[in-house]
Amino acid sequence: MRAMYDLLAGHVMATALRYLGNPDDCCDVLQDCFLKAFTRIHDFDYRGKGSLRAWMSRIVANESINHLKQQSRLTFLAETDVEMPDDDGPPPDMALIPPEVINRMIASLPTGYRVVFNQFVFERKSHKQIAQALGIKENSSASQLLRAKRLLARMINQYIQEHDD
Fold first, then answer.
1. Percent of the chain with pLDDT over 70
2. Burial code of 26-58, b = ≥16 C-beta within 10 A, e = fewer?
3. Cα-trace Rg, the chain
């Protein structure tokens, strides 16, 4: 158990932070994830290198979403709730931004945007799967993702402008 914790705690914490945005909540979810993994290890199906990490990724994503639901913080913003640019413009150059800055930007997204973005981008879920898991419509999932991408692009472009030397 200790070896598994040492191997995966950093990954679980980083994933939880992407979903929750709050380090205190992440500590709670980290504990819940490992308790669930240790009690459900019989459900784990080894499929080669990386399968344990993938299994834990699914657990932390689900536990993070459950935590947000339990705390009544899983909210989805309407189009009028956040001012967005009308067009996408050119995609920002992600190579200019350190990964920890990108992670902080993702963590700062409004909750609904952040959860849909994480599910789509990192967990590779379809809008149908996301909608079922979150109890929303597929169109809402697609809208939240689009708005998350636009907001992230704006943050990235602003970061690049501020750090352009």
1. 88
2. beebbebbbebbeeeeeeeeeeeeeebeebbbe
3. 17
